[in-house]
Design a protein that fits this description.
Largest sheet: 3 strands, parallel
Structural class: alpha/beta
Order of helices and strands: HEEEEEHH
Number of domains: 1
CATH topology: Pectate Lyase C-like
Radius of gyration: 24 Å
Distance between the termini: 85 Å
Oligomer: single chain
CATH superfamily: E3 ubiquitin-protein ligase SopA
CATH architecture: 3 Solenoid
Amino acid sequence: MRVLRHLLGICVGLIVALQCLSLPAIAASSAAIRAFDDIEAAVKDYSGQSLIRAEFGDAKLTGANFSGADLRGAVFNGASLKQANLHGVNFGDGIAYITDFAEADLSDAILTSAMLLKSSFKGANVKGADFTDAVLDRAQVVALCKTATGTNPVTGADTRESLGCP
C-alpha cells in the first residue's frame, strides 16, 4: 500500500510539474499584416484603400497616391514619402519613424495619436490636418507651425491647436 501511495504521489507531482512548466508561446501570425518592405513601389496608387496596420519598411514611395486611404495603425519605418499625396488619409495611431514627408500633401489628414519621431516634414502641406496627441520632434512642430492653417473636416480640430502652436 505504501508503494502504491508513493507511486501515486510521484505521478501527481509529475502532472503538477508539467502543468507548471510554461508552454511555448504561440506568436500571432503576421499573415494578416501586409508588409511592403524595401520596395521601390511599381504601383504607387493606394488611394482609397484599406491599409490598416500595413507595414512599409524602407519603402521608396516618392510621389505615391494614398489620398483617402485608411492607414490607421500603419507603420512607415525609414520610408520616403516625398511629394506623396496623403490628402484626407486616416493615419490615427500610426507610426512613421525616420520617414521623409518632404513636400507631401497631408491636407485634411487625421494623424491623431501618431508617432512621428525623427520624421521630416519640410515643405509639407498640413492645411486642415489633425495632429491631436501626435508625437513629433519639437523642431518639426516649430517648422510646421509656420504654415499650419485650417480645420480638419472630419474631426473639427484646428490644425494649429492640434500641433500646439503658440
